[in-house]
Amino acid sequence: MIIINNNVIKKIYRKIKEYDTILIARHVGPDPDAIASTIALRDSIRLTFPNKEVYAIGLSVAKFKFYGVLDKVEPEKCRNSLLMVLDVPNISRVDGIENIEYKEILKIDHHPAEDIKGPVDWTDETSCSTCQMVAELILKSPLKLDSKIASNLYMGIVSDSDRFLLSYTTSKTFKIVYELLKKSHIDFVPLYGYLYDRSIDEIRFQGYLSSNIKITENGLGYIIIPNDIIKEYNVDIATPSNLINNFNYVREIIVWTFITEDVKNKVYKVSIRSRGPIINKTASKYNGGGHKYASGAKLTNEQEIEDFIHDLDNLCEKYKRATISNI
Ligand code: AMP
After folding, report:
1. Atom 6, ligand 1: which residue's CA is nearest?
2. Which residue's C-alpha comes closest to atom 11 of ligand 1?
3. Which of 16, 36, 74, 195 has the highest CB neighbour number within 10 Å of its CB?
4. 115 CB contacts (<8 Å, ≥6 apart)?
5. Fold of 202-325
6. Average per-residue pLDDT in the chain?
């Protein structure tokens, strides 16, 4: 049995029991961990408490429909609700809560804490994913599990840990996955078909990124992706962040960033990854945030892009100097 976090898990379970209406929300521009954790938690609460009204909210994303269908909710139904916020630490990035009045907020998240803080809050930066936390909550409380819930949680864990490759993948991750598989008996190999299905356009676009990424002497890899290129390769603005982890373990690069033009919102959407320097402080400076080694930001003009690249390059330079002087 897994024996940590028992107290907060008891408190969360008590809150779930207390409320008749529960909303579950996650961040804008969701990834598999955000979608899978909200749908899995909703389905588990519904299975355990069939009389409660439980909604997983936020904009639907067509390519993630295999995780399950999201809910539309009427704002007036929510006045006495518990809002459970998953996989996001800042209120401004929670999707679908405009016009909604809730009674209490409760967060379950593996990002560094920011402004969301309810009376019950579970932030675990050592967890590889929010799905790992939701799996732990279900495994250690009376919340029920079925094979669909277990499949969603498994896919969220695999996706956010990049197949158990990234830091924050710990012995606890494997222990939770072991318990999840043992209890649910899911056949997990076919699930990779959902997670890793991609088009030849995406592979050709990855070729474009590999051929055009610039690499500085200090080990910063960066590429600015204009809207024309997105169109030419028949991909979308979310594709670069789906591909960014594939540039890990490139010998010449320690920090890498994709800066994608988002014409609709008149910004540049930025993904950043690192194999050494901590990048989320730099991301916060540019309208962003995230994890120590995986962050995002938003840039609005060329000067900001230049400053941002300069800051990341300095970070690499400092890191390189510190690493060499430690040898
Ligand atoms: P991405 O590169 O889009 O996969 O994002 C990497 C991490 O940074 C995720 O944990 C995101 O939730 C977080 N993130 C991305 N964009 C932002 C932003 N504008 N503000 C705060 N966090 C962000």
Report:
1. 295
2. 290
3. 36
4. 89, 90, 91
5. Diaminopimelate Epimerase; Chain A, domain 1 (3.10.310)
6. 96
